[in-house]
């Protein structure tokens, strides 16, 4: 693999990012995910910090399953675009319906793992609330909540990695879980440096756009914050901020899956060359 190879797949993934139909599809999917996040955020307004933590991460993990299905659809669309085939979205969706449904279930193990972490964290929250000795437990056992929250962030990273690695595998290979696991392990073991490099390139526009949009949303909330005890207005405000948020984020999501497809095909070529040599 050379810099020219990376430049070539980057430019091709970038050029095929700004397709109106794909951007529209992704915008609608992200808007639905945004509605879910806004709904959970509205429930968490008057909830405790422990409850609010679960209401923050659970919708994100639910959205990861939806995004994995969306990614598989985008990979198959991109695969036809690169080969200059006529892209029929309805036909691709009809042929991919079963695998799209199966892909959405990959978020369930992650959610179950998170619920175990969250309930374990609740034990330490209860220990902290014990009169007289709660502060003592909170001091000497602080490392445990730290590790639990670290594991939660690790699950978020795993969700992102699943989107990057599994979407091309499921779209271009197979939906059999055992076969997917074998292929995924082989991909991760093939060349860690190139996997990391290509993964960083794929996710950088997404994280950059997400950071800029989040800062803009934070500044808007700090300057134009609604002071009201009624959650309805806060939810309504979040909804109308979410609409331009997801539209502007759509190109980065499309590029992410385009580049993930290119990376998968490039790594497969490298594996084939190494076996032949």
What this model shows, in words?
The protein is 86% helix and 0% strand. The model has no long low-confidence stretch (mean pLDDT 83). The longest helix has 46 residues, at 231-276. By secondary structure, the chain is mainly α. It is built from ten helices and no strands. Helix 7 crosses helix 8 (177-190). The two termini are 15 Å apart. It has one domain.
Q: Indicate how many domains the architecture comprises.
A: 1
> What is the N-to-C succession of helices and strands?
HHHHHHHHHH
Q: Class by helix and strand content?
A: mainly alpha
Rg is 21 Å
Which strand-content bin applies to the residues?
Answer: under 5%
Mean pLDDT: 83
End-to-end gap: 15 Å
Number of helix segments? Answer: 10
What's the helix and strand layout?
Blueprint: H1 3-15, H2 20-43, H3 49-82, H4 89-104, H5 107-128, H6 134-140, H7 143-172, H8 177-190, H9 192-223, H10 231-276
Structure summarized in a few sentences:
The protein is an all-alpha fold and 277 residues long. The chain is built from 10 helices and no strands.
Write a concise keyword list for the protein shown above.
globular, 277 residues, 86% helix, mainly alpha
